[in-house]
Design brief:
The complex is a heterodimer of chains A (254) and B (174). Chain A is of the alpha+beta class. Chain A is 41% helix and 16% strand. In chain A, helix 1 packs across helix 3. The longest helix of chain A has 21 residues. With 174 residues, chain B is mostly helical. Classes of the chains: A alpha+beta (254), B mainly alpha (174).
């Protein structure tokens, strides 16, 4: 067979030919044993592949996939749902609902398991009132890049934890995220915006007294304090929904 | 519209799992991939044009999601357009001895194919798409689709021949 004959036989097998071309190939198949063997091998290879994979069709579809297809994340796969319900919101909502009450208890819960780590960790150095450096800046930049609001990120070897609180689009600095961070027993809240180079740069931050932490977990938009002030300055809007935020995370904030 | 696409997605799930299993080599990985792809599809459903095939759109999303994953997992990058792509390590080599059932055998053979050939093979040989549909879905020329399909089938056939201990007449060679 010529090279183009292999191509024609394959197209014949795949039912890609018009009637005239089919007749030509059938003549070839009648006359040429190699063409017939090639056709048989095409059938054999496809039946092998399709036959094995078709066994998947007999497998029951897991419920979590059905839920995902319907846009209803199942509880087992949606850690936000517990937080949402604790704030009095419908559990089937896929929109991030920020706690109506101070959410410090959630933060405390998240950090309770690592209290030993926090105690054992070395001192985190932050110049008083100066720009954040070192581990906090790294944790903020890494944590805000891939962590959904309400979930906690911590550096593998550092006693620094960061929890994004809300995500905003701003006219002045693109996408920005309100965050809370904990370094040893010191809590910091702030706002960081993503630069064109893919870094999260802290725009403003405030170190809190321990007994005043709760008030900082409400969405900053429309509120008071340095984060809310900065958001207004940047013309930020309302917090994005969980879907919008997740889409941005998945698309690497593009 | 959201409800329509959701219910269509649900009805497509068995086939999407089959396609993803062919890509990933395991049902558990396929389920993770399909879940991510469904979530992505729902987020981007405004990009799907009603009247066009939702399944083809989903195959494309699954493929691109899978490629993104595998690229992140590898230190090197692969070109989708390259006809000669270095073969990935056999992900299941440790389990070859135990993998005697049909699906595992198929997965082992598919794993030998470069990703671009594997996708074309799955879409045509398993999902029954036409060359033109695959060309449109993958946004590659029809001739490229045929070339990849031919190479994929040749490789599969060679593996079947070698696993059976014989290569009889009419060996595919070009």
């Amino acid at each position: 067979m010529k090279d183009q004959d292999f191509e024609k036989v394959m197209a014949y097998f795949d039912q890609e030919l018009d009637p005239g071309q089919r007749a030509d190939v059938e003549k070839l198949l009648e006359a040429d044993a190699e063409a017939r063997s090639f056709l048989a091998k095409l059938r054999e290879s496809d039946q092998f592949i399709a036959g094995g994979l078709n066994t998947v069709l007999d497998e029951p579809v897991p419920q979590h996939l059905i839920d995902a297809a319907r846009g209803q994340p199942s509880a087992a796969n949606e850690p936000m749902s517990e937080d949402v319900s604790s704030g009095g919101q419908a559990t089937d909502s896929i929109v991030v609902e920020f706690p109506k009450k101070p959410a410090f208890s959630r933060w405390a819960y998240a950090t309770a398991a690592s209290v030993t780590l926090l105690v054992a960790a070395g001192a985190f150095l932050m110049s008083p009132g100066g720009s954040p450096t070192g581990a906090l800046a790294t944790a903020v930049s890494n944590g805000l890049e891939k962590t959904a609001s309400g979930q906690v990120y911590h550096l593998p070897d550092e006693a620094v934890q960061v929890m994004p609180v809300a995500t905003f689009r701003t006219a002045g600095a693109g996408v920005c995220r309100q965050f809370a961070a904990q370094v040893q027993d010191q809590q910091t809240v702030g706002l960081a915006c993503r630069s064109g180079e893919g870094q999260w740069q802290i725009q403003t931050r405030q170190t809190l007294d321990g007994n005043g932490a709760g008030q900082t977990y409400a969405p900053a938009s429309g509120g008071s304090g340095p984060v809310a002030d900065k958001l207004r300055e940047l013309n930020g809007g309302q917090p994005l929904s969980a879907d919008e935020e997740q889409a941005l995370i998945s698309d690497q904030w593009q | 519209m959201s409800e329509d696409i959701s219910e269509q997605l649900v009805s497509l799930l068995p086939r999407l799992r089959r396609f993803a299993t062919g890509l990933t080599g395991s049902l558990s990985e396929a389920d993770d991939l399909v879940q991510q792809s469904c979530e992505k599809a729902l987020r981007k459903q405004h990009q799907w044009q009603p009247g066009t095939r939702l399944d083809s759109w989903m195959y494309r999303i699954i493929q691109t999601t899978w490629i993104d994953q595998t690229r992140r997992q590898r230190s090197d990058t692969v070109s989708l357009e390259a006809e000669e792509i270095p073969e990935a390590p056999d992900r299941r080599s440790e389990n070859v001895a135990e993998n005697n059932n049909m699906l595992d055998r198929v997965s082992q053979v598919l794993d030998l194919l470069p990703e671009d050939q594997r996708v074309v093979m799955l879409m045509i040989a398993v999902e029954g798409r036409s060359y033109q549909e695959v060309s449109d879905t993958l946004e590659v020329p029809k001739g490229t689709v045929m070339s990849r399909l031919y190479r994929a089938r040749s490789r599969v056939q060679a593996e079947l021949g070698s696993s059976e201990g014989s290569v009889d007449d009419g060996e595919i060679a070009r």
